[in-house]
Amino acid sequence: MAPPIWRWVRGRQASGYDKMLLATLPIPLPWDCYLLRFPTGSEIPPHTDPVTGKRHYRLNIVIRQADVGGEFFCADPIYATRRIKFFRPDRSEHAVSRVEAGTRYVLSIGWVRRSTSRP
């Protein structure tokens, strides 16, 4: 079943964040685009998002920082600045620290490619 589009739903890991699917396309290069909302008290514990036989990429753009907390951590980002996070969620452990005050918003664009000999 496809996730609902343009509606807030609870994020994974039962950690208090919400996600809204903005767009998706299953072929030829599967990708999705979400708006993520991290209210006060939400966090994401360290984890990876395994994908069998494929490479998963994600570009997160921080639209609004939380007032306190809500920092993104990634073990091995491809590229990272204060607002831009580009990483392989299938290979790099990542997390978001607890939002202590305010609400954090992130535009998250992800895609999956066939696995090859390249990383």
Pick out its properties:
three-stranded antiparallel β-sheet, globular, 119 residues, mainly beta, Jelly Rolls, 52% strand, seven-stranded antiparallel β-sheet
Describe the structure.
The chain is mostly beta strands and 119 residues long. It has a single domain, classed as Jelly Rolls, CATH 2.60.120. Helices cover 0% and strands 52% of the residues. The chain has no helices and 12 strands. Strands 1-2-3-12-5-9-8 form a 7-stranded antiparallel beta sheet, with no helix packed on it. It has a 3-stranded antiparallel beta sheet with strand order 4-10-7, with no helix packed on it. A hairpin with a 7-residue loop joins β1 and β2. The model has no long low-confidence stretch (mean pLDDT 92).
Can you give me a brief rundown of this structure?
The protein has no helices and twelve strands.
Specify the overall morphology: globular
Percent range for β-strand residues: over 45%
- How far is it from the N-terminal to the C-terminal residue, by CA? 31 Å
Give the number of helices.
0
Portion in helices:
under 10%
Counted beta strands: 12
Average pLDDT: 92
CATH hierarchy: architecture: Sandwich
Label the structural class: mainly beta
The CATH class: Mainly Beta
Biggest sheet record: 7 strands, antiparallel
Radius of gyration (CA) equals 14 Å
Low-confidence stretches: none
H-E string: EEEEEEEEEEEE
CATH fold-level name: Jelly Rolls
- Biggest sheet: strand arrangement: 1-2-3-12-5-9-8
How many distinct domains? 1
